[in-house]
Amino acid sequence: MYSLYAENENVKKENERLQHEHVSMNETLQARAKLIDQLKSDLDKLNDEYKKQNVLVQRLSELLASCPDLQLENERLKLENGQLRYNASLDYSMGIAEENVKLKLENKVLKVQNDALCGKLISDSDKKLA
Questions:
Q1: C-beta atoms surrounding 70 within 10 Å
Q2: In degrees rounded to 5, what are phi and psi of residue 45?
Q3: Backbone angles phi and psi of 66, in degrees to 5
C-alpha cells in the first residue's frame, strides 16, 4: 500500500513538472511565433525596397546604355557590388548592424545639410534675380 502511495506521489510530481514544462514550451513557442511574424514583416519590407531599387537600377541602366564609357563603369560597379555582397555574406556580424545605425544617422544629417544648402542656393538665386 505504501509503495502505491509513493508511486502516486511520484506520478503527481512528474505530472506537475510536465505541466510546467508544457507551459514553458508554449511561452517559448509563442515568443518564437511573434519573432517569425516580425521577421516575415521585415522580409516583406526589404523585398518591397529591393523591387523599388531594382526598378531604379533598370531605368539607370537604360540611360547608361547609350554611353560606352558609362557602360564600362557600370560593369565595373556591378562586379564590385558582387564582391562586396559576397564579402558581406562571409563577414556578417553584429558590428554591421551597429554600423548601419551610424550610417543611417549620418545619412539623415547629410540630408539636412543638403536641404539647407539647396535652400541657400535658391535664396541666393532669388536675391540675384531681384
A1: 14
A2: -65, -45
A3: -85, -10
Helix axes 2-64, 68-91, angle to 10 degrees: 170
**Cα–Cα distances in angstroms (integers) from residue 47 to residues 2, 27, 100, in the given order:** 66, 30, 18
pLDDT tens string 36-55? 999 999 999 999 999 988 88
Domain ranges, residue 125: 94-130
Q: Of 18, 51, 66, which residue sits at a domain end?
A: 66
Do residues 87 and 79 lie in contact, with contact meaning Cβ atoms separated by under 8 Å? no
pTM for the whole thing? 0.39
In degrees and rounded to multiples of 5, residue 69 shows phi and psi of -60, -40
Examine residue 86 and state whether it is found in any structural domain, yes or no. no
Task: Give the separation between CA 100 and CA 82, rounded to whole angstroms.
Answer: 19
Quick: pLDDT tens for 60-82.
777 767 677 777 887 888 899 88
